[in-house]
Q: What sequence folds into this?
């Protein structure tokens, strides 16, 4: 579910059912990715937020660069994936 006032409301799969998780305040893709690099880890919630932000339209060159930056950091071990 999407709310223009609050940003993205993520849905997460509980064992055997879907449930709504908290609504996140409006953030830009740059803010999300900077937070990921500041923590030096990528959580499932981060992944879901990124996917929600970019899933409805084609990526701009700047957005593709942001995604590539995450991929390269994961490949080089500069980011950890945590659950």
A:
């Amino acid at each position: 579910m999407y709310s223009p006032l609050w940003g993205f409301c993520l849905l997460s799969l509980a064992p055997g059912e879907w449930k709504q998780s908290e609504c996140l305040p409006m953030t830009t893709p740059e803010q999300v990715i900077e937070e990921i690099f500041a923590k030096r880890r990528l959580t499932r919630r981060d992944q879901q937020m990124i996917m929600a932000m970019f899933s409805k339209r084609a990526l701009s060159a700047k957005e593709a660069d942001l995604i590539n930056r995450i991929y390269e950091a994961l490949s080089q071990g500069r980011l950890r994936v945590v659950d």
